[in-house]
Amino acid sequence: MIFGQTRFPAIVATIVVAGLVCAPLLVLCMELLWTADSINLGKAWPGTRGGLLLFESFFFSLCVTILGLMVAIPAASLLMDVTGYSGQLLRLLAIAPVTVPPFLHAMAWQRLLESIGASTQGFAVTFAVEAAARLPLLLAAVLIGLHFVDPRARNAALIYAGRARTFFSITLPQARPAIIAGACMTMVFSLNEYGLPALFQRHTYALEIFAEYSVSGSSVDTLLVALPLVLLSILFAVIAIRALSSLPSPVAIGSSGQTLLAGPWLYDLLRTLAVAVAFSPLLVLLWGAVALITGSGAAPISMTGFAAMADSAAIALAATIMAVPCAWLLAENLHRHRLPVLWLVVLIGIALPASLSGAGSIRLWSWIGGELMYKGWGLPLAGMLVGLIPLATLLLYAVIRNSDHLPWDAARVYHSGPILWWKIRLFQIWPGVIGAFFLLFALSLPELELSLLLSPPGFSAVGIRIFNYLHYGAHEQVAYLILLLLLVSLLLGGTIYQMIRYQVRLDYREREGYNKP
Amino acid sequence: MIKVQSLSHGFSGQPVLDQLDLDLEPGEKLVISGKSGAGKTTLIRLLAGLELPDSGSIEIDDISMHSGSAMVAPHQRSISVVFQRPALWQHMKVSAHLEFVASGTGQKKESTVREILQATGLESLKDRRPHQLSEGQARRVAIARAIAAQANYMLMDEPLVNLDQEAKSDLFELIESHIVATGMGLLFVTHDETEAELLGGSRLWLRQGRLWPTPAVGRAGESIVGPAVASL
Amino acid sequence: MKLLNLIFVAVFLMGCSDPEAVDEVIVYTSVDQHYSEPLFEQFQRDTGIKVRAVYDVEANKTTGLVNRIISERKRPKADVFWNGEYSQTMLLAVQGLLEAYYSPQAERALWLDPLNRWTAFGGRIRVLIINPEALGDNPMPDSIFDLGDDRWPADKVALALPLFGTTATHAASLWSHLGPSAAIDYFLRLKVRGIQFLDGNSVVRDKVVSGDIWFGLTDSDDACVAAVSGKPITIKYPDQQSDGMGTLVIPNSVALISGGPNTANGRTFIDYLLGKESEDLLSRMGWFHVVAGKINASHDCPLPQQIRIHTATPAEIYPSVGTSRAFLRELLLR
């Protein structure tokens, strides 16, 4: 008797989840085919101006990422040398601003630059501010990479070489996969950003999407205009995925445990400067928030603000609760079967701009969904899942790849089906699952574009509130929101860090021997 | 009976097992020796259903284990496996490991677990989690877990590696008294000739992707006794 | 696992449940929540009809709602579209998404669609916002053409990117009024001079308030937010000379969505919005600056009471929207 190793319900569930993610794009593509006669397919070709704008956007994003890495790598190396709880706290503080939307970073920086009489326009300022806004994400990627480095390899190298040489020749190459993945995701986010550069009068190709909407009112035309950007985003997402596939297994989570020996003075000077810069996003956000609150008479956050926060938190929580199991399913399938079509689904979800996936979602569900999806949160939930599932899939895929396969195999010898996932796998990857919950919640809470397109009437979204506050000078509300997001980062980030550390320590014992400390 | 015919498997174009044949009767004790990288672990994983072979056939108790890309799932093969590492589940207590496995046997879980805990000397450790165990205790739990499955065949992939001599002796005793005595078919692979000699039973050597009745083959096909065996 | 499944299904069903089935009207509005929400509350108090609103924001280039209405074409969810300007409403009319409705209150309107698909009412004014302190001894600007005048340093002069919102409509009005050739010359001059094209009208205001910019072109509601909160700025209507073209008034527009779920309530809302009470409320809050052909005096904003208005109608301006945006996109998005 022959049994398939992949169970039928799992196949069906995977197809449903994959369909959910890529259906909005498919609907737009079908509309494109139906209306091909009246659509100018040439819009997909950016032309000279569009091509130059695309190149500039690419170059801008590249500069942002490189500058970010130039700060993040030396800063992370020094932060990793700080041992104990103070080291953990410093690392957490440095990456805490990762949950604050880039536009709010930009507002804070703009205020600071204006207050000291510095210029707030031009390439240099724009890319420096965007690099600062992206720095926490890059710093998090580098820190994760450094956490994955086997300290034994580093300590062995220290016998033969100085600290600087050891770092660049031994430590950094081992941290490379996480750094490359973080850099590529930064490229994807930066390529699709339009608000921050526009605030500093730089225009990016992402703004073309809105210009096209504004002129034609056609999602299909807009899809064609967005296509070069989508393809570029896919390219970087592919590189990120390849890098994630080669992550080494962490052998210890925490600082390097090295004593703070003096290194070459230039090396230490650069690292110290980098750490100072690495804390600038946090300090500027705090300065901005405090200045806004004290400058405006410390008005408390309004009830409508609370209502918006509660509504958005509820929908973000619901989207997160639904997205993480779906992402887990896709990640397991990708890990086991490596189906190219599933990778394509993930890439589409990451690369498709939110305004297009929202427009596609409306068309899809008005076609098949009946009234059910249009009532309450059905539609915004479905729309949010399109973007959230692929991101969580990437994260969980990396975690699953790094989990110890032998205990998993040992369990497979005796059981199959839900009990295996529920009783064994979940406990192997739980820090990743909690991390995915946190990441998705932080991303979906202040989300703007999908809220505008898909929120049910009468729904009060935080993303919309933020920009209303900014428009009418009620900046103190935004300041409270910034502080709240930073607090959420610190509390949840700290908790997850401790969870991962604990799990890695357990895995390390299993891998390296139970008699080891 | 486990019957393997013309089993071939490789990784990235490099063949590891090549037209391998193997028979294991219920109650038989078969020890396979081979150097590191010879394909011992691959053979165990193929028999356990953790990998799909490139070609060849595996039958367990007259049931074919794979056809094309479909195969019988590991938990349906009536085998249990002890891996090179304990491969314990870090979030579970010792007793929970046994309960998890015993729940798939269809027998009364509590009594089975109690019996095995007593028989393997783990009763005092039943409430401990893996990180509270020593290496030898962790290996003992891994073997107890395999026993709890009450399968027809036990596959052991170097289960005693990196243990000191005293711990090895304890575990040999455990294997002898609770696996061999129950009439299970035992396939024990190791690179350590001393272990192989101590365990006894039938012997085969895995070399060049196949099983051989002698430890090594000289240039003219002459049998050469390995240094570990010679020292005995 | 069963528990997880239960949670999953419960969350989804909870999400899909209808919050309340009440007498309601669904309004999509690009008018800022700051102004529109009090009106919705007043409407609900007066009529008992609950307003469920969806808002747009400047940061999204106010393209979100129009995109949403077009995407919902097969299953319209909105009853009414209340827009802070009119060109996007006219785009919906052209796409056949609006239902004709002549409100009994339409006589108060500024302009009407000949086919009654939309009604333009109330109005904001395009104004020059000036920081006198920053301007110092330099001459006071009084025309939109001063943006292209070398008497003021280019980096101290700004307007919002004329591809979106009211600035795009303003640009189209220049195409219509001056003719394409002169309008192109004007924007080429601004581009070559290197003036600042900012992210939105509120950004122009904020930059003038901070003194980073000396003066700029913006909407009266944005300028008034700064003036009412005591910021040191001056508001001027541009081109008020006897031979000047006057300044542009940008009215709100309201339209009934074809096939919406509560069409009758939609009509009631439109009647209410066009009525005197709404006009008074929106005037008091500072959203309307032109009411019944006069400058709104019921708000604290120090707007000059005399005004010379640019006379082009929406119907005259709309045909230029496409061409002006296409040119400006080529010129400025680079």
Could you explain the architecture of this structure?
The complex is a heterotrimer of chains A (about 525), B (about 230) and C (about 325). Chain A is an all-alpha fold. Chain A contains 21 helices and no strands. With about 230 residues, chain B is α/β, with parallel strands linked by helices. Helix content of chain B is about 30%, strand content about 25%. Chain B contains 7 helices and 12 strands. In chain B, the strands form 3 sheets. A 6-stranded mixed beta sheet of chain B has the order 8-9-10-3-11-12, with helices on both faces. A 4-stranded antiparallel beta sheet of chain B has the order 2-1-4-5, covered by helices on one side. In chain B, helix 2 packs across helix 3 (about 110-120), helix 2 packs parallel to helix 4 and helix 4 (about 135-150) runs parallel beside helix 5 (about 165-180). By secondary structure, chain C is α/β, with parallel strands linked by helices. In chain C, the strands form 2 sheets. In chain C, strands 1, 2, 3, 4, 5, 6, 7, 8, 9, 10 and 11 form an 11-stranded mixed beta sheet that branches. Chain C is built from 13 helices and 13 strands. In chain C, about 40% of the residues lie in helices and about 20% in strands. Chains in contact: A-B, A-C.
Secondary structure: elements and pairs:
The complex is a heterotrimer of chains A (517), B (232) and C (334).
Chain A: H1 8-34, H2 47-81, H3 84-95, H4 102-115, H5 123-147, H6 151-160, H7 163-191, H8 195-199, H9 206-216, H10 219-245, H11 265-278, H12 280-295, H13 303-337, H14 340-351, H15 354-368, H16 378-402, H17 405-412, H18 418-444, H19 449-454, H20 462-471, H21 475-512
Helix pairs in contact in A: 1-10, 1-13, 1-14, 1-15, 1-16, 2-5, 2-7, 2-11, 3-21, 4-5, 4-12, 5-7, 6-7, 7-10, 9-10, 10-14, 12-21, 13-16, 13-18, 14-16, 15-16, 16-18, 17-18, 18-21
Chain B: E1 2-11, E2 14-24, E3 29-33, H1 40-48, E4 55-60, E5 63-64, E6 66-67, E7 70-71, E8 79-82, H2 94-102, H3 109-119, H4 135-148, E9 153-157, H5 165-180, E10 185-190, H6 193-199, E11 202-207, E12 210-212, H7 227-231
Parallel strand pairs in B: 3-10, 3-11, 8-9, 9-10
Antiparallel strand pairs in B: 1-2, 1-4, 4-5, 6-7, 11-12
Chain C: H1 2-16, E1 24-29, H2 33-47, E2 50-55, H3 64-71, E3 80-83, H4 87-94, E4 98-99, E5 111-112, E6 119-130, H5 132-135, E7 157-160, H6 165-178, H7 180-193, E8 196-198, H8 201-210, E9 215-219, H9 220-228, E10 234-236, E11 249-257, H10 263-274, H11 276-285, E12 290-291, E13 294-295, H12 314-317, H13 319-332
Parallel strand pairs in C: 1-2, 1-3, 7-8, 7-9
Antiparallel strand pairs in C: 3-11, 4-11, 5-6, 6-9, 6-10, 6-11, 12-13
